Amino acid sequence: MAGNSTGNHFRVMTFGESHGRAIGAVIDGVRPGIPIDTEFIQRELSRRRPGQSAMTTSRAEADQVEILSGVFEGRSTGTPICMVIWNRDQQPKAYEKIKDMFRPGHAGYTYLAKFGVSDYRGGGRSSGRETAARVAAGAVAKQLLAKKGVEIIAYTKEVAGVRAQRVDYSTIEKNPLRCPDPVAAKKMERKVLKAKSEGDSVGGIVEVVVKNPPVGLGEPVFDKLEADLSKALMSIGAIKGIEIGNGFAAARLRGSQNNDPMYFDRNTGRVRTRTNNAGGIAGGISNGEDIVLRIAVKPPSSIKKEQETVTISGESARITVEGRHDPCICPRVVPVAESMVALTLLDHLTRQRLLRSKKALQELRDTVDLIDTNIVLLLTERQVLVEQIGELKKRKKAKIVDRKRERQILRKQLAVARALGLDEEFTGELFQAIFKLARSTQKQVIGEVRL
Questions:
Q1: From the CB of residue 139, how many other CB atoms can be counted at a distance below 10 Å?
Q2: pLDDT exceeding 70 applies to what percent of the chain?
Q3: Is residue 88 part of a domain?
């Protein structure tokens, strides 16, 4: 099945099913010798794992990561990093009674229509459990981005119509909704629990902010940064919409309101914008301001309320989905969204580094070419002076070869070469060639060799 990998230079492939033996990720593109903090990876997985509160599914998975390859003595080896997370608490029997019915909102019908086979055990590959592998890979990407000073922060902006009115990063991990507004978090929690008690679920909005992003990320025109970020985030099963910066609100503004005034910041030595309506991306390329985006998270499809559906054979049916399911997926989407943004940014950063290295190589070559031209010009100027010296020697009937002066010049230039760390043998050969050229030029001027 295609479509299981992402990235061009920093590549990630995930594998496994919700109720299979394991899930995991393979990362290709990590340079050797990079410190890999497995404890950090585990902490990130713990943020996404199920069973954290009444806001999430009660499935008891520890999500303990095991690195099978690509890391030795805490550092990357340059080979693919393979990470596996074993499924310990799968209960496929919970789906036996409804295995022949399509669950509304799920991918059972579309998978069956496409592949001719569908894993009814919690959705198999289409299950949200697959995102644990993304978080493991994203944790590696986060570590590499942190070395560049890049920080990615996501939080629940809205749930069931309740919107955060303030943003305090320090409170995000202190409530089960991962909301940056403690007051709004309490209201959200009541809404979620009410829907859960009614056998229903609710959706919301998750906002992601990238602090200190590098300038210049994004590849016009089809690989614009917002295009790749959109694809990465929309690949998460529960996401149904995305906006960057002002997003859809920009459609209701004038250009004079939506444009970001620009100025030169002498403290940082770069161009800045006074507002950030563009969300840190202009022309598909990051401009150095915070990257701000929001994603619409649908209500989880597995609910206990009775719904209308059909069976595999096409017969009408009524379905109630039992088992352990999230009444609101927003708090668990937060680390997944951060990971997908991290994977995308790191891939673009790697692409940019390769682009700039090629540009730097050409710039260096251009500089070398200029130096070579200057060498030729200086040699030409030296030859003009040598011809003038030849004319003087001709009038004075002096000898062409002046061994004493040649030895003086050579001693002086070898001393300079030695002080600069230049190869003395090469310097000696260079000046012997220059001396030979000077003798030949003076011979032509004088017309004969006088030893």
A1: 27
A2: 96
A3: yes
